[in-house]
C-alpha cells in the first residue's frame, strides 16, 4: 500500500480502485434498502442476516470503513498535491470552458458527502452497535424495518437526505468515469459506453435512495 501511494499516479490509481469498490457497495446497499419498500419481512430478513453474519460484520464492514476513509483522505491528499504543484494561478483561467463545475469542486462535494456519511452512521450504524454490543439486547428479527421507518418521520431529515443524495449524484457523474480513466480504461470504442453507464448510474442510484426516504416519510 505504501508503494502504491508514494507517487501521484499510484495515489490516483489507489483512489480509483477504492471508488470502484464503493460504487459496487452503493448498488448492494440500495438493493437491500429497496426491500423495505416492497415488504417488511423481506427487509427484516435481509437486515438480520447482514447484521449478525460474522463475515459481513467483522470482515466486510471494516473493509468498507477503511475504503470510505481511504477514498476521502486520498482525495484531500491529491487536491493538496495538485495545488502545491501549481502554486501560482494562471493569468487567465476560464475553468468552465475546460471542465465541469463538479470536476473542479469534487473536494467540496466530497466533504459534504463525508459529513452526510457521519450523520448516516449516527442514525443507523451507531444505533446498531449500541443495541448489540453496549446494551446487549437479544436478536429481534422484526425491529429493522421499524427502525428505518421511524428515522424518516421528520421532514427535515428527509430534506437533508434528498439534498445529500442529489449532491452524491453530481459527485458520481464525474467520479464514475474518472475512476475508469485513472486505471487506464480509455478507448474510443468503450469510453462512450462507460460514460453512458456512469450517467445512468449517477442518476438512478441517488434517485433510488431518495425514493426510499420519501416513501417512508409519506407512509408514516
UniProtKB/TrEMBL annotation:
This is Succinate dehydrogenase cytochrome b subunit. It comes from Chryseobacterium terrae. Keywords: Membrane, Transmembrane, Transmembrane helix. The chain crosses the membrane at residues 12-35, 55-78, 106-125, 155-176, 197-218. It comes from the Bacteria. Gene3D superfamilies: Fumarate reductase/succinate dehydrogenase, transmembrane subunit (1.20.1300.10). InterPro entries: Cytochrome_b-558 (IPR011138), SQR/QFR_C/D (IPR034804). The keyword Transmembrane helix applies.
